[in-house]
Structures are given as C-alpha cells and as structure tokens.
Specification:
It contains 14 helices and 18 strands. By secondary structure, the protein is an alpha+beta fold. It folds into 3 domains: 6-293, no CATH class; 326-424, no CATH class; 433-491, Arc Repressor Mutant, subunit A (Orthogonal Bundle). Strands 1, 2, 6, 7, 8, 11, 12, 13, 14, 15 and 16 form an 11-stranded mixed beta sheet that branches. Strand 12 (197-209) and strand 13 form a beta hairpin. Helix 7 packs across helix 9 and helix 8 runs antiparallel to helix 9. The model has no long low-confidence stretch (mean pLDDT 92).
Length: 492
C-alpha cells in the first residue's frame, strides 16, 4: 500500500556475541557449537546465592574496539546495572547489563555495502555490554519446554541505532555492514545460524511536518534470524500499520514476533517500559575505567577500503563490493595488479592492466574454481604466471580466448608456467600483415556474397569474416589486425 502521508521509521537493536573463551562474568566456556545442554554452567552464571561476578576483560576490549571503529564517545567510567525481569531462561531473575553508563555512546555506521556512489551514515544511540540469557527448547508435547543454560552468561554486545533508517533496504544493508565489520575487527564470527548475531527491529510510521518526521507509536519485532527476514518483517509491519491508520485505528505499542514460515508478524505481549525493569547499579561490580582500552590498533576499516579501491583502481562501487565482502580476494586482486604493473612497467597502460586483472580474476578464474566446487584460496593461482598472461594481453600477443585457455590450465595445475602453456598450445597471435595476407585473400574469395553484403552496408557480416580468418589461422590471427585487413582488401 503506497502512502505519501506516512513515512517509515526504523530503529535497530542488534546483539552480537563476541569471540571469547569464557563467559561474561565467570570462567565457564563460551562455545556456541556445544550440543550437550547445561554442560557449560557454574554457580555464578546460574545465579546461586553468594556468588560474585568478575568482568571478562577481553569482552570489554572488544566492545571498545568496536566503539573506536564507529567513532563513538567512550565513557571514561562505564558501569554495569541490573535489569530485573522473570523469564525461564534467565536463571538469576535479572540480567547484568548497562542501562545508564554504557561503554560507547553515539557514533555512526556507514552503509558501506551499498552500491550507491554516496555512502549513507546511520547515527547510533549507544553500544553496551551485557550477559546473554539461556535458550528455551520447545518440544512437540503440549505446554512443555526445556531450558538450556549453556548460553546464559555469555557476553553480548548490543548496538542500538537511532530511529533514522527510512527504508527496509537500508535496514538490511545496515545489518550486513555491521556483520562484516565484526569480522574485519575480529570481534565476532557473527554467525546468525548459531545465534552469534541477532536482530530486533523497531518500526513506526510518522508524519513529516516542516521537514521533520514526527515519530509514531513504535512496535518491536523479535525472533528475526536473518537480514533478509528483517527486510520482510519491516515491509510487512509497514503495510500492517498503514492499514490500521487508514482505517482510523491506533497502533498498539507491543512486542511482536516474526513467523518465517508464514512471513508475518504476530503479537507476543505489550511493550514494557524501562521502569518496569527497575534498573539499578549492579552492587557486585565496581565501575570500570576505560582508559587502558583506548590505545587499540584498528585495521583498515571496510568503508575506508571501499573509497581507496574506488579512487585507486577507478572501479565502480558495485565491483568494489566484491573485494569488500571478501577481504582475502581483495588483497589478492591488489597483489595481481602490483605484480602485473611491475612486469609491464608502463604507466600509460595502468588502467588497462587493472581492468584486465579484474575481468579475468572475477569472471574466468572465480568462475572456473566455482565450477570445480572449490572456494577461493590465494595458492590456487600464481601471481607471476597471471601477470605474464596480462602482459601478453596488453601487448596483443595473445587473444582473450588464449588468456582463458591459460587460466584453465593454471587452475588445473598451479605449477604450470604461462610460457610453457603458450608454447605448447601455440597461443601467440599472428599480427604480421604479411603472414595473414594469403589467409585474408582466401577467406574473401570463399565468401563473395558476404563481401557484397558488406559493401551494401551490412557491417555485421564483418564479424563473420573475422571468424573465418580465425578459423583458417587455427586461432592464431590477431582479430584486430584481421578486421583491419579485411576492410582494407574489400575496399581496395
């Protein structure tokens, strides 16, 4: 349902389990692969009386690393609080979280996985650290559920955006960008299938008044296990709320779930207010000074890498995204370009070299290994052999078909040498006009009707004649030279 009166407004709450060997406040193992229930538990994470929590230093280091990458304000003195509520998977009856003094405030996440020229930047409210709850496992038996507490107490980073996302597509890109950033920073594997990254969306419809959107009643949607599902949940909720508003009904502030099978949201409960949780400072933990965590070395961030690839290699954003999503492949692309430039040593050819490397790497090489069921690994292709192939292409000594043959053989055996392949398969193009003269004459004599058609203005027939020259020369003729010679001989 289209409507210009109401504007979609989305805020995201994304939970990420950082990679740590132990839980947030105890020495129990943090292992998302554990299949035996209730084995990684102890009196501390189970909330037994008298047990005292001890903060996980690595988890604190990782959340501050994320905050530094996103340009957040790092609180000099961060504090943990208790969030009180009852649920079967919360053994203590409260959650240790950060309600008042989180580690990271404000900041912004660039939507670097967008193919748009200009990257949008989404403002953040905060990033805080807390402990996770356990898992409820529902059986086929009516009204029966089992609880696995292995996840209870696992460190959990929660990133909260400001409500400044105005499309389901931007929300999807936000999530995917954050997920990739976690891997760049080595904070988390962010595997959504294992529950290492989970998303909740807050959806409302507001009216735009004097250039500002007045927020409507917020509805939270949980149980979303992928960013494509987040996209669908937002779109569904937008339509549902719009239909209610158009019929004169009010939007109820509630928590809804997402049914991935039926592709709909469904009501779970009315939304709690913050005072329902009775937040208060965690009495068993002292405030944490963050100064010692500030001098962390950051890798090249993906949005900076994106701009560098666009500017240095003159590639379109859509092409660059391949090298942002797969950092190892992007590093290999740079190595191939560098090796090829050094071998050819002609700055005037640099852009041609870059384009050739991109095309033969992403289309031919990746296509071949995918066909063989292999994943990309740098050792599958020798940069020196690839660079030599590029050199012969730049010098018009081999054809594109010849280059494909070389890559096919190099993929079959990484120890093969480009020179040997060219020699054994006779791939050098004949560019000498004298050597091609007899072949061109023979082709023209054998195809008089094509010559007449070309003279009458049917230029497409020229490609057929070039093909005949290539066939007659067994693929050794330079097609560009052959084309020029055909035109010259027809017009003479």
């Amino acid at each position: 349902m289209e409507d210009n009166e109401y504007k979609l407004v989305v805020g995201l709450e994304i939970h990420i389990e950082p990679k740590t060997s132990t839980k947030m406040f105890c020495s129990c193992k943090n292992d998302s692969d554990e299949s035996v229930p209730n084995i990684n538990v102890c009196p501390i994470c189970m909330g037994h009386p008298g047990m005292l929590p001890v903060p996980n230093k690595l988890a604190i280091q990782k959340i501050i690393k994320l905050g530094l990458a996103l340009g957040c304000e790092i609180s000099p003195l961060a504090r943990f609080d208790r969030k009180n509520y009852f649920y079967p998977d919360l053994p203590k009856g409260y959650q240790i979280t950060q309600g008042f003094a989180p580690f990271c405030l404000k900041g912004e996440l660039p939507l670097f996985l967008s193919s748009e020229e200009v990257v949008k930047r989404i403002s953040l409210h905060d990033i805080h650290l807390e402990e996770d709850a356990g898992k409820l496992l529902h059986t086929n038996e009516k009204d029966v559920a089992m609880v696995d507490y292995n996840r209870a107490g696992v460190p959990l980073i929660e990133l909260v955006s400001e409500p400044v996302i105005y499309s389901a597509e931007d929300a999807r890109i936000f999530g995917e960008s954050l997920q990739l950033l976690m891997k760049y920073l080595d904070i988390s594997n962010a595997d959504m299938e294992k529950g290492e990254m989970r998303v909740e969306v807050n959806v409302s419809l507001g009216k735009e008044i004097d250039g500002k959107i007045q927020l409507g009643q917020k509805v939270e949607v949980k149980n979303i296990n992928s960013f494509s599902s987040a996209f669908k949940a937002i779109e569904y909720e937008r339509e549902r709320q719009l239909e209610l508003l158009k019929s004169g009904e009010k939007i109820v502030g509630e928590t809804r779930g997402w049914n991935d099978v039926k592709q709909i949201t469904f009501s779970q409960r009315l939304k709690e207010e913050s005072n329902d949780y009775r937040y208060f400072p965690e009495p068993d933990l002292v405030p944490i000074k963050t100064e010692e965590f500030l001098n962390q070395e950051l890798p090249e961030l993906p949005w900076i890498r994106r701009e560098r690839f666009i500017n240095s290699y003159m590639l379109e954003p859509k092409k660059v995204l391949l090298f942002i999503r797969d950092k190892e492949l992007g590093d290999f692309f740079e190595k191939l370009v560098k090796t090829s430039k050094e071998l050819i040593n002609d700055e005037s050819k640099n852009q041609n070299i870059i384009d050739l490397v991109f095309n033969y790497l992403t289309s031919d090489f990746l296509g071949l290994i995918a066909k063989e069921g292999k994943e990309f690994k740098e050792e599958l292709l020798n940069p020196s052999n690839f660079a030599l192939m590029v050199k012969y292409l730049v010098e018009n000594k081999i054809s594109s078909r010849g280059a494909k043959t070389i890559i096919e053989d190099l993929v079959k055996d990484v120890n093969w040498n480009t020179e040997d392949i060219i020699r054994e398969k006779n791939l050098i193009q004949v560019s000498d006009e004298g050597a091609l003269t007899e072949i061109v004459k023979k082709v023209l004599e054998a195809n008089p009707n094509s010559v007449i058609e070309f003279k009458n203005g049917k230029e497409s027939v020229l490609q057929f004649l070039v093909g005949q020259v290539m066939k007659e020369s067994k693929g050794s003729a330079n097609p560009g030279i052959a084309k020029d010679m055909l035109i010259k001989n027809i017009n003479s």
